[in-house]
Every structure is written in structure tokens, then in C-alpha cells.
Amino acid sequence: MKNNAVFSSKNQSLCEHVMNEFLLLDKGEALPLKLSLHIIGCKKCRTEVRYLSLAEKVAAKKLKAAPENIKPVTMTQWVVCGILMTLMLLFFGVFSQNRSPALQIGFYLVFAVVLCSYCALFVAKNLDYFLKKFDSTSPTLKSALSALS
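RESULT FIELD:
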């Protein structure tokens, strides 16, 4: 039994050495004869080399990107809402000529805040589109940014 334990520890040490040598090889490099003979004769090392080869093939495959849950942007909603806001502004302007100037100024200030919020919301909701449309490497954007600084 003692002899069997010594043989097992020597075999395990040899297997570790062979696997370390195998892992030190570059991809596609030929196996030395000593490593090839051991891998052919040792079931444990052969299985481990097979699993490593499979893992390398799986890791080399191009990963599929997870589908993004981004809804396509329909400009119709934004345009219709913008036209309605403009028509309401014109409607109020035409029919409020006889009202007090303070009411008109208040309405136009509120409308300006709503319009700015509407524009900010439009840009925030469609930020991906704008980032793709105006790539930072484009020369026109670079010249515009350099003009600002």
C-alpha cells in the first residue's frame, strides 16, 4: 500500500508537471514528444487537455450581444405634439389681444419653460440617435467643438 501511495504521488506530480508544460506552450505550437506520450497514455491528462481545448474554442467564438430593448424612435409623436403646442400658442396670441399684458407675459413665460422642457425631453429620449448621428470623430463636430473652446 505504501508503494501504491508513492506511485500515486509521483504520477500526480508528473501529471502536474506535464499540464504545466502544456499550458506554457503557445497556441498552435507542436507538443514535445515527452508530453505527447504522457497525454496519450494518461486518461486524466488527456481529458484535461480535451476540456482545455474545448474551453479555448468556446472562448474564441464571438459573443452575441444581448438584444437591446430600445424602441424605435417615431418622430410622428414629437412632430404632432410640437405642432399642437405651436397652434395653441398662435391660438392664444390671436384670441388674447384684449387681455391684460401681465397675463400675456405670464403665458409666454410659462410657454417658454414648457417649450424648453419639451426640447430637453426630446433630446434626452433620443440621445442614442444623436450620439450616433454626430459621431465625435466627424470633422464638422470637431471644428464646432474647437470653435467653442
